[in-house]
Amino acid sequence: MLSPAGTLQSAFPINSWETHLDINQAWQRIADGVRKFQTEVFPQQRAMFESVRKAQHPLALFITCADSRILPNLITQSVPGEIFTDRNPGNMVPPYSDFVGGVTAGVEYANLVLKVPVIIICGHTDCGVMKALLHPETAAGLPGMQQWMRHGNESRHTVLREFAGRSEEEMLNRLAEANVLEQIAHLKTHPNVTSRLAANEVMIRGWVYDIGSGSIRQADPVTGEFTEFSSI
Ligand SMILES: [Zn+2]
After folding, report:
1. Active site includes 22?
2. Does the annotation mark 122 as catalytic?
3. What distance in angstroms lies between residue 63's CA and the mean position of ligand 1's atoms?
4. Contacts of residue 116, Cβ cutoff 8 Å, sequence gap at least 6
5. Which tens digits make up the pLDDT trace of 185-198?
6. Active site residue 157
7. Which of 34, 48, 161, 219 is packed most tightly, with the most Cβ within 10 A?
């Protein structure tokens, strides 16, 4: 099994996630990574890569934030071909009627062509978009973000109403959860999803991944209540 964790060890002199690199340092780090992949990682997994050369049958459509700390294949310990990933700031899913964008196209392809059996919408702790939803003034000068964030507006209002006065961290966590539920509701406006749900061909789960602990909170599919996810 491919171990993406191998790429996280200190195989390189600079831990780029701990510091800002300049252009040359950043490019060098990327180039070193590609070289390591092609000379060490790929050859060790050649048969597995060969097996997915011409087809994919992913286990899941995994919709998550663009945040660099979320690694769907690492979290689920899956290999190439198993997770069809759609990422954007805030793990948003625009309602079907809004517009045709990348998420809409990805959902359509995953459901109608790949026929994924599972859809996961995965938010996370310390999400910059959740912070901006709580404090819209921090998104000043970011018109693209302001437009995109409106897909989480209902969650923002819910959390401001129900958790006013709580700590910043708790409000952010509750908002991450509410936002996942809101995006699941949006997902259910997509006809390719509703038809497959009705036929019992797909299940949807909502997660919030805790970056600092590696734990996952999962929403009850009926009540929407989040509890610690345990696979055991
Ligand atoms: Zn995020």
Report:
1. no
2. no
3. 11
4. 58, 59, 60, 61, 84, 110, 202
5. 999 999 999 999 99
6. no
7. 219
